[in-house]
Amino acid sequence: MTQPAEVHTSLFVTCIVDQLYPQVGVSVVNVLRRHGVKLDFPSDQTCCGQPLFNSGYTQLARQLGKRVIDSFSLSDYVVVPSGSCAAMLKVFYRELFSGDPDYGEKAEQLAGKVFEFSEFLVKVLGIEDAGACFPATATYHSSCHLLREMEVRQEPLLLLEKVEGLELRPLPQAETCCGFGGTFSVKYPHISEGMMEDKIANVLATGADTLISCDMSCLMHIGGGMSRQGQPVRVRHIAEILEGQEETGGAGNG
Length: 254
Description:
This protein is of the alpha/beta class. The protein is built from 13 helices and eight strands. The strands form two sheets. Strands 2-1-3-4 form a four-stranded parallel beta sheet. Strands 6-5-7-8 form a four-stranded parallel beta sheet, sandwiched between helices. The mean pLDDT is 93.
């Protein structure tokens, strides 16, 4: 199932992907194009404002939020390769602009357009088999905002279960936070590190050689911890798996 040519689909790439893991953005584009999506990239997009919002700087967060809303005002769909940033656009902008005479309704309109990447594939395009091949033994980490704010649970697993050559193993305490939490890991580093170590222990218990998630922020956190421990487990964004990048080096940790 592909979209009609007149449908305007845009990519909100996120700061972490844009600045640190651009190959993930490339994988997102390649997967969507493979399935007939004509994707554009508003060049004036910027940070969604989540770090500022979470730290209580609501006025500064609104400045960024207004720019994002304006950048995607003409889009029919906005695809986001991150449950965290998607939640900011879809859920928290409503709070941020509640009662705003100019941007309150615009925030509501944007919320109806926003889909996390795996959610877009399954719910909008009707795809469960992305035609990918990725020989590996893997486990999947569910990020907090994807689960609790976006309420996306089964879509990533449906897609991964159809990847040729991929053996998917269940992750103990899969819905437990990895400890990153954006600014949480900066404000409470010792708590964050303890949560990360628990997550790493659960990953290693699966015997998997690859950890997959829909959020590069989680993978950056967990992957960094595993790298410091000398663990050989690779981390991969789901878009890289669905593109079939088994030999490219991927987003990190091997």
